[in-house]
Amino acid sequence: MLRKPLLAFLLLSLSACSSMVSERFANNLGDAILTQNDPDIAAASMPTFLVMMDSLVLGAPENATILSASADLNGAYATLFVSDASRARQLTDKSLRQARTALCTVENGICASENADLDTFRQALKQLRRDDIALLYSYGTAWAGWIQTHRNDWNGLAQVPKVEAVMTRVAELNEQYQWGRAHLYLAVINSQIPPALGGKPETGRLHFEKAIAISQGKDLVAKVEYARHYARLMFDQELHDRLLNEVITAQPGVAKLNLSNALAKQAARELLDTSEEYFEE
Questions:
Q1: Sign of the CA dihedral 44, 50, 56, 59?
Q2: pLDDT tens profile 21-79
Q3: Which residues are CB-neighbours of 136 under 8 A, at least 6 positions away?
Q4: Which residues form a coiled coil (predicted)?
Q5: N or C: which end of the chain has fewer CB within 10 A?
Q6: What is the DSSP annotation of 84-114?
């Protein structure tokens, strides 16, 4: 069909250029939300952004970067702003599907072992390298979001150990990635059950402290979740209130943490408002 090799090369170059532009645009959509410091504006904007992202996915259905960016945006919208449970589940279903597809273009062994036993799954994760960390982290966060919206489903809860395995591998590859949030996920996972019932909150505490240290305290979500999950579980009101007051008085820092920090401040105020009631029970 193409008459000259040079023309074929030109079309290939144009295609690659178009792909790079689309990838950059997909990532910029996500960054535009992350840097927004008004949660109401972010919530109102995201449905339009999701449709735009769908258009990019339609144009490049096997592009791992675009799929991953779309997964991140769908998952964030579902877990942060959607109150209708059915809609949230649909969005996290889509997020996990896209994140899985993106990762499995790099390492198909993940897809093959996802439903296998935990040890087999961990071995598959060992095949991933530092260059794969963005796709792996996106996969882990999408899976965690899916579990959050399917928390009344025992099958969903049974998948928590595999999400823990994913985040453990992210931390092994580069624990500082995304301000140490792999440690934050591991902290929350280990701070769900009291020690008397077999929980590991002290392991969770170490992960919380690690996450805070890595971000130098700039990721306020870590302190909010530390208070919400560990301090309340261990009935430590002094720690609880100190962490939340630090969040409320924190000054603006990293631009890409604007939205999450704004939401963290809202959550901190809500948790502080119920502190006396909670710890007097």
A1: negative
A2: 567 767 777 788 888 899 999 899 999 989 988 998 988 888 999 999 999 999 999 99
A3: 103, 125, 128, 166, 169, 170, 173
A4: none
A5: N
A6: -HHHHHHHHHHHHHHHHHHHHTT-HHHHHHT
Where on the phi/psi map is residue 100: left (φ > 0), alpha (ψ -120 to 50), or beta? Answer: alpha
- Identify whether 13 is part of a domain: no
Burial class (CB in 10 A: 0-12, 13-18, 19+), 274: exposed
Structural domain including 255 reads 175-281
How many domains, the chain?
2
* Residues 71-123 pLDDT 10s: 999 999 999 899 999 999 999 999 999 999 999 988 888 888 988 999 999 99
Residue 210 covered by a domain: yes
Number of Cβ within 10 Å of residue 188's Cβ equals 21
Specify if 18 maps to a domain. Answer: no
Spatial distance between the Cα atoms of 10 and 31, rounded to a whole number of angstroms: 31
Q: Which of 160, 185, 213 is the last residue of a domain?
A: 160
Question: Are 241 and 180 found together in one domain?
Answer: yes
The residue count for the chain: 281
Considering the domain architecture, whether residues 50 and 146 belong to the same structural domain is answered as yes
Could you tell me the pTM of the whole model? Answer: 0.89
Cβ-in-10-Å burial (0-12, 13-18, 19+) of 19 comes to: middle
Task: Confirm if 231 and 239 have CB atoms less than 8 A apart.
Answer: yes
